[in-house]
Structure formats: C-alpha cells, structure tokens
Design brief:
The complex is a heterodimer.
Chain A (H helix, E strand, L loop, with lengths): L1 E10 L2 E11 L4 E6 L5 H8 L5 E8 L2 E2 L5 H7 L1 E4 L11 H8 L5 H14 L1 H5 L10 H13 L5 E5 L7 H16 L3 E5 L3 H7 L2 E6 L2 E7 H6 L1 H6 L4
Chain B lengths: L33 H30 L2 H32 L6 H19 L7 H20 L7 H23 L13 E4 L2 E4 H23 L1 H11 L1 H6 L4 H23 L9 H16 L4 H21 L5 H15 L10
Antiparallel strand pairs in B: 1-2
Helix pairs in contact in B: 2-6, 2-9, 2-10, 2-11, 3-4, 3-5, 3-9, 3-10, 4-9, 6-7, 6-9, 7-9, 10-11, 10-12, 11-12
The chains are: A alpha/beta, B mainly alpha.
Amino acid sequence: MLVLDGLCAGYHGLQILHELDLRVEAGEIVALVGANGAGKTTALRAISGVVSSSSGSISFDGQRADGVRTAELVRRGLVQVPEERALFGPLTVEENLRMGGWTQKGPDVSTSLTEVFELFPILEERRRQAAETLSGGQQQMLAIGRALMARPKLLMLDEPSTGLSPKLTWSVLEAVRTIRDRGVAVLLVEQNAAQALRMADRAYVLESGSCVLSGPGPELAEDDRVRSAYLGL
Amino acid sequence: MTDPTREHGAPPLDRGTVSTEEPPQTTQLTTPAPGGRRRAVAVRVAAVVAIAVVALGLAYWRTGNEVVVTQAVLTGLMIGGVYGLVAMGLTLIFGVLDIVNFAHGAFLAVALYITVEMVGRFGAHPYLALLVSVPLMFLLGAAVQRFILSGAMGKPLENQLLITLGLALLIDNGLLLFYGPNPQSARLPNDTGINVFGAVVTVGRLLAFAVALVLAGLLYLLLQRTRLGTAIRAVAANDSGAQMVGIDTRRIYMATFAIGTACAGAAGVLVAPLVTIEPTTGELFNIVAFVVVVLGGMGNVVGALVGGLLIGLTEQLGALYLPGQSPLLSVFIVFVLVLFLRPQGLFGRAA
C-alpha cells in the first residue's frame, strides 16, 4: 500500500534520511523504532508531504505520493497524527472531529462520528467541551479520532504515547490495534520501542536515517542487537 | 527507555514512560468546570457595567443635564455599532492570518467613495450602495490577499505590516488623485429625527446601527454555525492541524481576508451619510478600530463588537468631560489604561 524506495530527505540542505526503503501492506501495523534523531519523524513528514524529498520515491495505493500536497494525500486516505497533536484548542471536541472529516461528504461524516465515539466513548461524553480542556490522554484520543474521521486507508501515528502514563499508553495502543482490526493499516513511530515492537506485525529499526534491521515485530523485540541498543536490556 | 530492572516479556502494562501530567482518565479534575470560565466573564461584565455607571454618574455631575447625557449615550452606542463592525473585520483578519492590517481603514474609505458615486451618479439611496460595496470589497480583499499578501505569509510580522501600510498610502493617495481633497457628502434624503427618552436620534444613525448589528450577527453565525466558519476558526487555532485534516489553508486565508474587508466595505457605506468624506476619513476609523480590537482582545470577534460599543460611548461621554477636545483624546486615554491594566483585552485570554 505504501512503498518508500531509496528515499532521501532533510531540512535546509542537511540530509537526514539516507536511501530509506520501507513498505506497509494493507491491514498491518508497522512500527518504526530507533533512537532520538534517527529520522523517524522526518520519515513521517516526508511521507505526508510536509518535508520534500531530494531523491527516491514514495508511492501510496499505486500512485506517486511525493510532491503531492498534504490535503490531497488526506483525500487519498493517507492521514497523519502528529506528535504535537495539532488539535483546534478552542473548538469543541465534536467540532474538532467534524473538521477531521473535512474531505468527506456529510452523511459519511455522521457515520464516522458514531464509529469514533464507539472507539473512544469519553469523547462522546465530552463532545461539547473545548479540546484544550481535555486531559493529555483524552487529547491523544481526540487526535486519533480526528484522523479517523478522514476515513484513512493508512494512519500514521507519531509518538502517540508522549506524555502519557503507562496505563494510558496501553489503552491508546489497544485502540490502535482495534483500528487495525477494522481494516486500517497503521504506521507507528514509537520511542517506547518495547511495546511498539510487541504489537507490530512488522518493524523497521532506523539508525542515522537508514534502516539497519527489519522483520516481524515480536522477533525484533527478542533480537539481541535491538534489545541492547533500544530496549536497554 | 532504560529500565534495567525490567524483565523481558513483561505484561503489556509497561512502565517504560514515566507518568507526567496525566491523571487516570476516570477522574474529571483536569477539566476546568465550564462554570469557572462563565464566572470569570461575569466578573468582567460586572466590572464593565460598574465603570459605565460611574462614567454616566460623572457625566451627569459634570453637565447637570440628563438629556445631554442621554443624547451622548445614544449617539455613542449608534456609532459604536459601526465601530464594532469595522473592528470585527480587523480582528478576524488578525486572528486567522496573523496580519495587522493597516489598510483596513483605506478599504473603508473606498466604500465611502463607492457610496458617493452611487448617490452622485445614480441618485440612489446611500444604503443601496451596500449591494455594490460589500461584494466589491469582498473581491478586492480576496485579490489583495491572493496577489499581494500571500507571498508574505509566514514571514516576519514587519513584512506584512509594511505591505499593508504601503497599500493604505496607495489607496488614500489614489482617492486623493481622483476625488481631490475637498470633502464630499452622501446625505440621506429627508433624514428625520426620532425622540428617544428626550434625546434625538436621526433615522440614519438608527439604521446604520441596526444594519451594523445585523451584519455582526450574521458574521457570528457564519463563524459558529457553518462548515466554512468552523474551518476558519480551526485555521486560526492551529493551521498545521488544519492542513493535516485536508483543509486548503490558502483558500481559508483568502476567504477570511475577503470577509474582513467586506466588513469594512459595509461599515463604509453605513457611516457615509454621517461623516464628511475625505480621502483620509478611513484612517480615523482605522485608529479607532485598532483601539477597539485591543480592547476586545486580539482575534476575539464578539469582543470587537462589545469593544466598539464601549469606544463609541467613551468618545461621546469623553466629549462631555473634556469639552472642546478631540473625541479621540478620551479614546486614547482608555486605550492607554487598557494597555496598562489588561493588555490581553477585556475578553482576551492571557497569552
């Protein structure tokens, strides 16, 4: 579904990604792990068109996806949840969600809204409340919910556990699994590598902007090199 | 996540990350009760009302004539509604595009001259000019944003500031070139006065006030109730978030600037019969609108309307306290006080 082929990208002439190859197939959770500064977030930004690539190619759903504007990618079903969440603070929970369905038709928005409320009942309880008054965990749920409103084929999550307690991290990751089971492919970037690897169908380990290891998630979680370098075991 | 004590294969309840600000999701404590915010607003409203009562008392004590005070209050509120409309456009543009638009008053001046033309050439009723001015200024705003300002988006604030200031000079002098410096007028035909509590209000002022309030209400509904309005607020709240949900932010910027300029276009027509029309008349409104925007809280559309009414009152009551002085004097005294005491404005949130 998503194919990165020899992707190079960076900021202001500083190259961060070096010939990154990566694939995400329909219906799988793929984890992208690695130390700080390994290029995980840059990879997501390059895919969603925020950072432009200098060489290599990105294709999504059989179509070229590099050099395409973010809004168009969202329309095609490639949606990102950024690490900073980027919610519309003064808008209500429901308004945030409805804006998430900006690219969708009216009736679809109502259907998606029901589905999101099913997944995160707390959001329905708080639907008339301003997003900025939610707790950190609820905000993360809202960010994911807002992305789901665009009916994505592939959902990209950047560090969804940032600032959350272990218990909340677990429930957010549990929701990610539910989303996958509903047929949405997930590309998950996590600092919290142990948990991400355990739940991922496949995983890539990044180091200095290129992939040094890849394979089934649980297998990588047992790999000695990964354990010593990233899990601190 | 370095945690040497952890064994591999631990249950999913990982304690890799340390809980920072997050209470368990079942507690409701993190949510400030909506009542708290309402109370804060109520306190501010009470303060404003208290100041207004004191101001009225002082005015009565100074003049010893209640009809004069009533007259000042009515005239102040009438013109204040129009100030509010001008400021709503300005504050909307600031809130969404982060542009301090110095050309706002010049746009208003263009609308003044559109009214002059409509009355002079076609003998139309001045307020019929709304039908021409509002769409025309909407288009002008869209064009200015698209072709002149869009290149400066995301650049330092001075760039946009200089561009809009240059644009204001260009428009003012363009008007001077075409119409000359002589004052023009666009009087309402047989404008009669109505007696309200002993004071006299002309139908023209009353109409200007009523139409300004209706337009302000429509703008509010547009922002709160429509999809476009929600998107405008979303872009104002977080433009990168807006891009991520697929909103074309460039279009929203253009639409917002156009709507803001249309507000100036409407206000220009509404005040045309009430003022002497010169190329620099717009600048006067610009200055007042800036004070109103700061008073109401930068980017706060409802605050701008309330601020407009307050500044209208200030101007008229100030003329009673300080007879013979420019009405702008009291406006600036209030402005300086607001900057000292409550720089985020009456209804703004502390940054």
